[in-house]
């Protein structure tokens, strides 16, 4: 089902209905698969899912690996200051690669439009925000003064968080109007509600 939603724009006119078994949902699958570049839409999607999944798994693991930090009193960025800071940074970079891949995948599969452009650009910026967060450590929750490094980290984090929240709502509308992604519109709505 996932591959079916990633139909390149150039092939959008050469698709046939595809009913997913047991789902009651109709999407589109390409009839003529033509190479659109060094990386296919399916590969972008796979890289995106893997990258974001690694980020989530890393942050779950950090709660157990570094029990000195409380999930109530600390933020995820604080783990970068502990013994497993390298793992926290690796998670940030994985998220960055995943988000950038998702942005490029959406750009190559969605029909052009202002909301579409705004969506993938914001996801791209969120990806770069994670890179910044990984390169510059936070000052820590208990810090009384802000350093330049900590300020840059905060800016990168805010770009990522706000970009993803706005994009979640934008994509709900974009998906509802796109034949290849319409079956994801309701899921996207719930995702937007959750992260907001």
Q: Short summary of the structure?
A:
The protein is mostly helical.
User: Pairing-aware structural class of the strands and helices?
Assistant: mainly alpha
Average pLDDT works out at: 82
Spatial strand sequence of the major β-sheet: 1-2
Segments where pLDDT lies below 50 for 5+ residues? 1-8, 10-36
- Strand-residue proportion: 5-15%
Element pattern in H and E: HEEHHHHH
- What's the overall geometry? elongated
Q: How many runs of DSSP E, i.e. beta strands? A: 2
Rg estimate, integer Å? 19 Å
> Sheet bearing the most strands, described?
2 strands, antiparallel
How far from one another are the termini?
27 Å
Individual helix count: 6
DSSP helix fraction: 55-70%
Describe the structure.
There is one protein chain. The protein has 196 residues and is mainly alpha-helical. It is 59% helix and 5% strand. It has a two-stranded antiparallel sheet with strand order 1-2. Helix 2 packs antiparallel against helix 3 (85-109) and helix 4 (114-135) runs antiparallel to helix 5 (148-176). The protein is elongated and about 50 Å long.
Quickly list its features.
two-stranded antiparallel sheet; disordered N terminus; mainly alpha; 196 residues; 2 strands
